[in-house]
Amino acid sequence: MPDTPKLSIIIPTLNEAGTIETLLSELRSCQAGGAAGQVEVMVVDGGSRDDTVARAVPLAAKVIVREPGRSRQMNAGAREARGPFLLFLHADTRLPKGADRLVERALSGAHSWGRFDVRLEGRHLILPVVAAAMNLRSRLTGIATGDQALFMTRDAFDAVDGFPDQPLMEDIEISRRLKRLSPPACLRDRVISSGRRWDQNGAWATIHLMWQLRWRYWRGASAEDLAREYRHVR
């Protein structure tokens, strides 16, 4: 029977054929560099209409297809993951070198969950400022976003019943719940996340939209209503 991995990396996908091979190849290289057998990489696809699944199968430890919805996909992956530590990674985000060791060290003390700092990769000159603001806001509030590669112990994930079944702000909501267990480990090591939504939709328009949605969610607006508006704007 294969050794139980220490860390399970769970990647929700939907039509990510253009990025998934590069991401999974980098993760395999990371494992070969010293973490072979210690990291389990899983892809949970939400019914892609391109060949995301076919491209992922040779490179991931497991590929499963589930009902679309990022929360549902991540929860499905966590149910089948074997590691005591879980890391949820967007398909357009790359981990820093030695991320598995960084996570294990962060979760070996008082912290039951955490996230990385983020650097946004894209054309717009404002992106470094956006990333710095994201990192500072997260450090001050203890709230993390999915772009920052949330990680947690299996026990913490189970204690908060996983990600809430909602179409938007699932990262904000699980952060709120995890904060009741412990403050987050805010790692200064940076993940590199794509700035494609800022490039495609306009940096200032995207910043305004995201802040408006978060403000309204904090004020009590439902995730379902906000998701409908988000999809309409996109």
TrEMBL record:
GO molecular function: glycosyltransferase activity
Location in or out of the cell: Cell membrane
InterPro entries, A to Z: Glyco_trans_2-like (IPR001173), Nucleotide-diphossugar_trans (IPR029044), Trfase_2_rSAM/seldom_assoc (IPR026461)
GO CC annotation terms, alphabetical: plasma membrane
Main location per the UniProt record: membrane
Domain Glycosyltransferase 2-like: 8-119
Keywords assigned: Cell membrane, Glycosyltransferase, Membrane, Transferase
Database matches in PANTHER family: GLYCOSYLTRANSFERASE, GLYCOSYLTRANSFERASE 2-LIKE DOMAIN-CONTAINING PROTEIN
Protein name according to UniProt: N-glycosyltransferase
